Amino acid sequence: MSCKADIEIYTTKVNSQRVYIFLAGLDSSLDGVCGRVLATVPFPNLQVTYAMVCAEANRQDAMMGGISTDGTAMATRRISTRQDNKKGTHKCTHCNGDNHVVDTCFKLHGYLEWHPKGKKTFANTSLQQQPLSSAAGLIAQTGMISTALSSPSCTKNNEWIIDTGANDHMTCDSSNFSFLSPSHSILAITNANGVSSPVTGVGNVPVSSTFSLSNVLYVPSLTCNLLSISQITKALNCVALFYPTYCIFQNIHTKERIGSGRQRGGLYYLEGGTSSQVYHSLAHMMGKNQSANIAEIWLWHKRLGHPSFGYIRRLFPSLFANCKLSDFICETCAMAKSHRAIFPLSSNKVASPFSLVHSDVWGPSPVFTANGMKWFVTFVDDCTRMTWVYLLKHKSDVCTVFRLFYQMILTQFDRTIKVVRSDNGGEYFKRELTDFFHSKGIIHQTSCPETPQQNGVAERKNR
Fold this sequence. Notes:
Elements: H1 4-24, H2 31-39, H3 46-63, E1 76-78, H4 106-109, H5 116-124, E2 138-140, E3 160-163, E4 170-171, E5 179-181, E6 188-190, E7 196-198, E8 201-206, E9 212-218, E10 225-228, H6 229-236, E11 238-242, E12 246-251, E13 257-264, E14 267-270, H7 275-303, H8 309-315, H9 331-336, E15 356-362, E16 375-381, E17 387-392, H10 398-412, E18 419-422, H11 431-440, E19 443-446, H12 456-461
Parallel strand pairs: 1-2, 3-10, 4-9, 15-18, 18-19
Antiparallel strand pairs: 5-8, 6-7, 8-9, 11-12, 12-13, 13-14, 15-16, 16-17
């Protein structure tokens, strides 16, 4: 490989293979971070991947370690309920029990509602009386049980908590929805200490006239509203940056700040205390991000020499996340593709028959007649639109046929032809036909070159 570009491509492939091998050897509890690594653009190297996996492993250790603080972090992630079919292959290091590990030990983390010991606990203990760990999170499971957490320090209000681990948006207020339907994929949510609450529905929460949060879970028993970082960054095509006292949202391409949140009580809240202020903040984020995307789409359209917006969408699909192709109309492109002006329809007709006759020649036909005819000429009266068709063996026979047509009109209708209109075909400019026009006082009108529209009456007859 002598080219520097080839070396870079080879290095990228080797790095990708190493990352794939590393991720394939991870435990199933780290599937979430594996998905985030594979979805990262540009694809990270092995060192960055290792750092992300270590951070997720430390977070899970903190979740299951029982460290207690006043605030409660909100987090959701998907888990699988599949159990190992092999008996006795796992041993818990906390209770020395078989067929489970310390991460799923009921004695350490609490019994679930379906467990016999868990039913007794739920019958005597309310949600407000049960302690929550600082890392107890919303564990969402598709199809059977989805889990979420609630904080005893929160009350039902219109504030939205920015949740870095939530897979979906969640709310406890049905008045926020513009559309709400029963949930079939997620049936319930269960917090880390086993309290289960049903998911009543899923729907859309409007933010502005042009943007709404989709697939928001309605959980009446929650005491807070959760804003999923994974969903909002995908919808707004932005990144979220967290600092000790605040967080900000930035457009991926322009790095423009489009929204922010404030840290309070160990949690990050979207700026805006009331529901209307929160919606205004989200709408402002969406509007600024969409405006930046539209401006960049137009910039690339001009840079690349005015290609179609369909091709630009294939090059930059993320820019069209919230834009429609029908919204982009380039006047320059429309003018450049217009070859000529539109010919207006004419309804003018002469007052008397045979004052104006339209004529055109069509052929050669791929199929000859029995007499060897492969052309035909039409004569159309402008006043009555009566049409006469004569078959021809050669285009040069037009002069002979017109003489016959002129004599037939004179004999049968006692009329004389005054004007003949045709295209610029050479058969109409033969000397013999021109002399006949002059001898009878007939005016010969022709269309402009390459402009068959001016002889439209005869041209349409050919169709």
